[in-house]
Amino acid sequence: MADESIRTMGELRRRPQVVTTAEDATRMVREARAAGRRVGLVPTMGALHEGHLSLARAARAACDLVVVTVFVNPTQFGPNEDYSRYPRTLDADLDLLSREGVDLVFTPVPDVMYPAGFSTYVEPPAVAGPLEGAFRPGHFRGVATVVLKLFLILPADVAYFGAKDWQQTLVIRRMTTDLNVPIQIEVCPTIREADGLAMSSRNRYLSSDERRRALALSGGLAAAAARFERGERRTETLEQAIREQLSSALVTDVDYAAVVDPETLERRDRTGERSIALIAARVGATRLIDNRLLG
Ligand code: AMP
To answer: Which of 39, 40, 44, 52 is catalytic?
Structure first.
C-alpha cells in the first residue's frame, strides 16, 4: 500500500524530459505529430509563476504533448536592461512544471539559438511600433525572432501566450499571419496576486515598500475601468485617472499610461466602446507593465 502511493506520487510528479538541442526538440515534436498527437507550446523565460503555469494548464487541457521552453532571450533585452541579472531558476521551474504534467522542456543555451555568425532577424509588424516599441527599441525584433525560431524548432499545433504582454500577443499574431506560420495562437488571461498585482518574474526584484507601491499599476487600471464603466470616453481623462493613482503611490517614472484601441494600439481623443488601458512604469529600479481591457 505504502509503496503504491509513493509510486503514484512519483508518477504525478514525474519531471518533464529536458532537451537542450534544437535537433532533439524538433524530432520529439515531429514524432508526436506524426503519431497524431496535438502539440501545445508555451514559450517562457523561466522564473516561473502562476501566470506561466496557467498557460501550461491551458495547453495540458487541450493538447496531448505539452512543451514549455525556458530561454532568457538576449536579443529582446536592451543594452541597459536586466538580461544578465534576470532570474534563472531552472530547478524550481522543472519542479513546478512536473506538477502540471508538462511532457517536454526545451532549454537551450544562447549559443544554440544564436550560434557564431547568426545575423538574420524578423522585422516586426507595425503594431510593434508604439508603447513598448517606443521605449524598448529592438525589443520586439528580438521577441519576433526568437518566437519564430521556437515555432520552427518546435512545430506545434498551438502556442499559448499571456494577455499580460498584450502588445506582444498582437505582434505574434500579426507575424504568424503575415509569414504564414502554421500555428494557432491562444491568448490566456493575466493571472494576478490576490491584491491585484499582475504576476511577473520581475516582481521578485521589488522591496516590500516597492511591492506596496506597485499596486498603483493595477489600481490605476481599475480607476480607468471604473470611469469607463460610468460612461467616460475622453481618453485624456481616463489616462489622467491612471496617472493620479501612480503619482499618489510615488510611481513617477512612467514610460506610458495609455488608453488605445486593443487591436491597432491607435490612440483617439475619444475611446471606442472596446479599448485597452496599458501602463509601463518603474517602481524603484524595476520596470513593470500591466494592462486591462475596457468595455
Ligand atoms: P515571460 O517568461 O515573461 O517571457 O512570459 C512567458 C509567457 O507567460 C508570456 O506569454 C507572458 O505573457 C506569460 N505571462 C507572464 N506573466 C503572466 C501573467 N501574470 N498572467 C498570464 N500570463 C503571463
So the answer is: 52
Distance of alpha carbon 213 from alpha carbon 219, whole angstroms: 10
Pocket test for ligand 1, best of 53, 106, 150, 165 (most atoms within 8 A of CB): 165
Long-range contacts of the stretch 202-210 (C-beta < 8 A, 24+): 202/82, 202/286, 202/287, 202/288, 203/49, 203/286, 203/288, 204/47, 204/87, 205/82, 205/284, 205/285, 205/286, 206/283, 206/284, 206/286, 207/284, 210/283, 210/284, 210/286
pLDDT tens-place string over residues 32-75: 999 999 999 999 999 999 999 999 999 999 999 999 999 999 99
Whose alpha carbon is nearest atom 7 of ligand 1? 44
Helix, strand, or coil (residue 129):
coil
Identify whether 52 is a catalytic site residue. yes
Judge contact between 288 and 164, C-beta under 8 A. Answer: no
* Tens digit of each residue's pLDDT (9 = 90 or more) over 244-257: 999 999 999 999 99
Residues in the ligand 1 pocket, defined by CB under 6 Å: 44-45, 51-52, 54-55, 161-162, 164-165, 188, 190-191, 198-201
